[in-house]
Amino acid sequence: MAVSSMYNNPLYKYTLFQMKRRPTYATNNTTPFMTAAAFLDLPRRAGDASMATIQYPTRSCMWIRGSPVCIQWSVLDTSVTQVRIELCQWGSTAVTVLATHAPNSGCFVYTKVPWGVIGHNFYLRISDSDDTSNARYVASEYFSIGNPRQGW
Fold first, then answer.
1. DSSP helix/strand/coil, 18
2. Domain Yeast cell wall synthesis Kre9/Knh1-like N-terminal: where (predicted)?
């Protein structure tokens, strides 16, 4: 097969499409895709400022199942008194609620990472517990959850 015909092959185009699948956001610039982290940092509603900036967990960290972790964020909106903290995984609709009414102090100690979760592309979602629409939230960078002995 010649190189020029390879690029016109529907299977090749489909493979490229599968490799590029990620959240898109319509913009007027020439960049067709936006990274997932940038997508998660978009304001949730027009006019909303970010309520916090998550400092931990970061992309390079790994939580160990069964161990305690300290979740840290910078408080940007002091009018939010209590937050809801959820553990999510990219591509999954399952959500593990870590706290429903944690104080918006910038730190929350979760006593035990659940045993039922393991893998990559986990992220935290912190939202205002008084906002029932859950429209205003901030998401962390992706991180991993592994076993105590072997990591991932």
1. helix
2. 62-145
Parent domain of 97: 52-146
Looking up tokens 């493979």 gives 15
Spell out the residues 6+ positions from residue 41 whose beta carbon is closer than 8 angstroms to its own. Answer: 50, 138, 139
CA-CA-CA-CA dihedral for 87, 103, 42, 74, to nearest 10? -110
Q: How many domains does the chain have?
A: 1
| pLDDT, tens digit (0-9, with 9 covering 90-100), for 115-142 | 889 999 999 999 999 887 767 889 999 9
In a domain, 44, yes or no: no
Q: Residue 77 has which token pair?
A: 């909106």
pLDDT score for 31: 42
106 with 145: CB under 8 angstroms?
A: no
Question: For the domain that residue 137 is a member of, what is the CATH number?
Answer: 2.60.40.10
pTM of the model: 0.67
CB-based contact 65:117 (threshold 8 Å): yes
Whether 69 is in a domain gets the answer yes
Q: Which residues pair with 87 in a beta bridge?
A: 96, 124
